[in-house]
Amino acid sequence: MMTTNHLPARHSAPRPTVGLTLGLLLFVMGSLGACAPVVDNRGNLPTQDAVNQVVIGGSSRADVQRLLGSPTAAGTFSDKVWYYISRRQETVAFFKPAPTEQTIVSVYFDDAGLVSKMTATGGETVEFIDHTAQTTPTTGHSMSFLEQLFGNIGRFGSKEGPYKAPTPTGQR
Predict the structure, then answer these.
(1) Global model pTM greater than 0.90
(2) Contact predicate 85/44, CB 8 Å
(3) Over the stretch 68-86, which tens digit does the pLDDT of each residue have?
(4) Which of 45, 78, 141, 154 is deepest in the core (most CB within 10 A)?
């Protein structure tokens, strides 16, 4: 007599392999790392030690340039002021960069070329300009492409040669 063994079939869920677990872990870590902000420092921010070495009434332009470096900008209407501008901004993922810190160190010079005053301001003085997409209205007729293309037919070249603009005396 033949006996049959009626053992239940084992259907177990496939066990994740070490490679799959490691791959998933790397994917999650890489995704989180991609969200870390990218910090961008721009401009010239002198160190506090360098700023402290500038002597009001005693440091010349050459001294300031040696201590603080070349200025980011000079005064528009007068060369008696130098600006050292720095900005720190962060970019997260694909979003627009956002400024997180801005510092402007202004160095003023007197007529003799010596430092007369120094100021430092932060981002509270920054003005953001909103650009508009509007166009300036003009007078006159706006010509279409076809008017521009066919409007010049016959104006150039004739039996007398190429077109010549009239002179102040009226002759061509």
Answers:
(1) no
(2) yes
(3) 998 988 888 888 999 998 8
(4) 45
